[in-house]
Design brief:
three-stranded antiparallel beta sheet
Length: 176
Amino acid sequence: MQPSLPHTPSRRRFLAGAAALPAASIATAQSGGAATADSEDFTYAVTRTETEWRARLTPLEYEIMREGRTEPRHTSLYAFEERPGTYHCKGCDLPNFDAEWKVSHFDIGWVFFSQARPNAILTGIDQNFSPMADSEPRATIECHCRRCGSHIGHILDVRDKVLHCLNGSALVFTPS
């Protein structure tokens, strides 16, 4: 068994802003493409056992998608992808994002989209968000795949734009 990766809050520290949560909440409400699944009664359409998830995903993908970790900065497979196409959840193949909404002029280290496909993303509150190593944790908006519940990233205020900041390791790109 491989050792667990340390929690990587670098993206969170780098991109955090005081307006992230209120701006993301407004954007989520306006987009119509996100819903919440905070209820304990919620059941995803695609469910797998931990063993099935581990067999399907690499150790890094498992830690990102099933444990809510963040991939290391500048390791995203799709940060500089510019072809037309669709980005699907690696956990269940649900189309989550279209390339036309990709924001490709940020060299920050992750994949950014201005919006998600309708009914593709669920949001939740990440209670462990710490913008700085020495600051108190605060909440931010987490993005999960609607069909399987896999963690794929966050909705953050990035350079005065509310964007989906995603782990490329949680996605599969299908060119048009």
